[in-house]
Design goal:
190 residues; mainly alpha; two-stranded antiparallel sheet; 6% strand; globular
Length: 190
Amino acid sequence: FGAGAWLPPGTTVQVAGITIPGGMVYVGTSLKARSGSTDPCLIDPSLSVARSGDYTERQMNYWPSYSDISTAARRSYLNWLAGGRKDPEADVGFVFLFFYGLERRVLVDANKDGDARADLPAIAAELRRLLNIYGEKSHSFRRYAAELLDWVSLVEHPAGLYTRPVPEFPRTFELPLYVRLALGQAAVDG
């Protein structure tokens, strides 16, 4: 592995002897965040990984970073990814670690890369799937994932949203951005 690279949806990779299906992760030895530090989502295969780990246990602080978590937490995270990112018993810290990669792909890469923009529908589907599994477990995750899903849905800010089928929305206390924008467009268009 060289510099960190996005693995597209459907890609399989092996890290520390663990096969991770489904792609949608960054893997490599360097990937800078806007702050200049290593991006928290980067799975660095040069870092050591414990022989065992339990992703149902809390093992990380509130703002986890793959490069900073323990070797057992790395094993736990890789095991969760290998299991299809779907066990509802997983600690939400591992979900956030994965989410950071989706967030980077949407907010950083898609601004300048057509391949990244082409991944947006798959990322939106993945966000909806994760919200169905983990949305009730963590208010923070539900809020951040719902907001990113709003952004993905509106990244092109298409006109006439009120004439299109309404997408599936996560359960929130606020009116989704998509609906607010569609209502605003309808009002402006008379």
